[in-house]
Amino acid sequence: MVDDQLFKSSLLFSEQRLCYADILPPSQVRARIEVAVLNFLRILTSPGRPAVSDLHLIGRRSRNSNVGSGLVSGGLWIYLSKEVTKRSLGRESAAKAFVRVWKVMEMCLRVLVEEKRVTQRELFYKLLCSSPEYFTSQKQVNRTIQDVVALLRCSRYSLGIMASSRGLIAGRVMLQEANQDVFDCSSCGSSGHAIKGDLNLLENLVINTVARYVIVIEKHAVFQRLVEDRFFNHIPSILITAKGYPDIATRLLLHRISRAFPSLPILALVDWNPAGLAILCTFKYGSIGMGLEAYRYACNVKWLGVRGEDLQLIPEESLTPLKAKDLQIAKSLTSSEILQDCYKEELSLMVQKGSRAEVEALYYHGYDFLGKYLAEKI
Amino acid sequence: MEKTTDLDDPQRRRTHLLRKIKDFTRSIVGDLVGGRSPEISINKYRNYCTNSDGNCFCSCNLVYGKEVLALRTQCQVHRIDVLLKVLAIVQQLLQENRHASKRDIYYMYPSVFREQSIVDRAINEICIILECSRHNLNVVSVANGLVMGWIKFSEVGDRFDCISSPNSPHPVPVHVEEVSDIFTIAQYILIVEKESVFQRLANDQFCSTNHCIVITGRGYPDISTRRFLRVLVEKLNIPVYCLVDCDPYGFDILTTYRFGSMQMAYDAKYLRLPEICWLGAFISDSEKYSLPSQCLLPLTIEDKKKAEAMVHRCYLHSEEPQWRSELELMLEKGVKFEIEALSVYSLSFLTEEYLPSKIRGTRRLPGSQVQPVNWYAH
Fold first, then answer.
1. Does B107 participate in catalysis according to the annotation?
2. A162-185 tens-digit pLDDT
3. Do A318 and B142 touch (CB under 8 A)?
4. Do A129 and B340 touch (CB under 8 A)?
5. Which residue among A52, A218, A221, B121 has the highest number of C-beta atoms inside a 10 angstrom radius?
């Protein structure tokens, strides 16, 4: 890779260790691919010692992850550092993985030249037909795509790979795309407004709001209930959901809103179980899986509900036992250094009681209860 | 007695249903006062059977049996208890004109209900007893479908304008009975099984060059999506085409759109689309369009079991025998393929060649009426 020594030396120490995948325009991605090819050829044909060079990818394991803290914002986030893993032609077992990375790069280059996008499934079929001896399953293709992201340090989206966005937004916010009318998210029917998967579009969205809070909601059903009850008219707010673990587009939009309106508190409404807390943490700190692409989108999210102190509102029968998967998630969360102590306490309470509760359990007290509960907590 | 869904005005419908609930409860109380066990008779419906001699009347929405609940066994007593509790909740929903999901209802009395499936069954039974559709009881679920294209409509007072950006997805409305003021210049409706195909069409700007409405249920379509399609077909009178993967699950989704699901058999009249035309994909397409052999994946054991079970459904014998032959051909050849495989040679193949040629090739009878049966594209 072409390194700019002067630029690098002027970065702060922590930032020098930081690695990320950019959202780049197609021309730059093509340039990076071409540079990779040229470097490889240069070493292969060097007059003194020709060699097949290894591919250096940013390591995507937890030992390469670090916690960064903003000097100004004070928030924490997870990022991946410079430790590399290698794909090399030398070792027989890993030779195919080496070739796969090149094949995916080639296919992505072709797609970019055509100025189109592909889905991961379409990419799988293309690779299956062009190089059947190297690609046999969708999982392999997905892993190789992650390798290319780690090698070229550009996001999947820049490589031309389409992803659907699961997010929805509603409330007192106005969004405007380039050359389009302003869209008012408070008159969006009962389903909310779909967040598009086009990251470029989201980067250039003009956002205006009179809301006083942003509420991130784990589940689609809860989001729909609040939209239907027009919660944002009682308390001026913006409601966002990613229907589970957040995708990049939703995190990007949330991050943009938080940057554009830094005084707007971001509150999360998740189920009282380890998975809910894990979702909250993904919004708040990021994740290792998306560490390269989405490290910047961490936001300061506060845990509004459901919390341990609300358990008195929920009848015993509405609590369900924790499953094995929940305990696993709880264990990995408690062992992470980034989690703050009061969250760890709640986790241990969950494990101790051995039960979990969903937000809908609050409906025991009637339909409007959820709105009142939220209003009080806020 | 007039069927509840024939009443157009929602206010009248609610009053009518509340009256029915009162009458029903009065008759039960009358039985108890008189020292008799109340007998609740629930009609059984189905939309197919495996009897292939053509003598069944599955497609005529007729009752094929009855189940009678009485205070005889412990299990039946519990079922009546659940039924009455759910009925009380529904009555409150109708009186206050609020909506709730099945999950919300479960959380009202979790100790009595014990499981979500018990609530689901009670809701279906109430629909059968009161002779209405589920949404008439104000029981709704989240909207899972997406729509894009040349259509504008209103829902709950909000205006949805898909025409301003015909290649952007919008969620399908939840309260389909409140959809009004539909305006369209679309020439047909295209249903696609998967969201990824929907994305491909959006990315290729299919709706810019084709004046149509594209809808996806993202897999098995939910009730809102099917009802929305039903409303569109009735109001707009334009052809409906369906594009699914060439595999048993795609075929099952196609039959769900066409005939409805077994679970909702009591409401099938409002949830099925006899006008639907199966556009693709067919096994014969793989030869016609020279699909590489690697794209033809072998049928798994589950695939074969599913296909063999579906082949015996009576409606395939009586109403769509050509569909059955296609399924049998798939079983015979033992292979399947997905729509994404069509993008192998060229990403725009689907939008620029496959779909237009299929749509051109559909046979039409003179006049504006679309022939409902024995009709599919080749």
1. yes
2. 877 789 999 999 998 877 888 888
3. no
4. no
5. A218
- Residue among A126, A180, A317 minimizing CB distance to B110: A317
Work out whether the CA dihedral A203, A209, A212, A213 comes out positive or negative.
Answer: negative
pTM (global) more than 0.90: no
Count of residues for chain A?
Answer: 378
Min Cα–Cα distance to chain A from B161, Å: 11
Query: From CA B136, how far away is CA A267, in angstroms rounded?
Result: 35
Q: Does A191 touch chain B (CB under 8 A)?
A: yes
Specify the pLDDT at position A218: 92
ipTM tops 0.85: no
The answer to whether the CB of B154 falls within 8 A of the CB of B181 is yes
Closest Cα partner for B358 from B339, B371, B372, B330?
Answer: B339
B350/B204 Cα distance (integer angstroms): 9
CA distance B345 to chain A (A): 8
Q: How many CA atoms lie within 13 A of B314 on its CB side?
A: 16
For residue A119, give the nearest of B111, B159, B340 by CB distance: B340
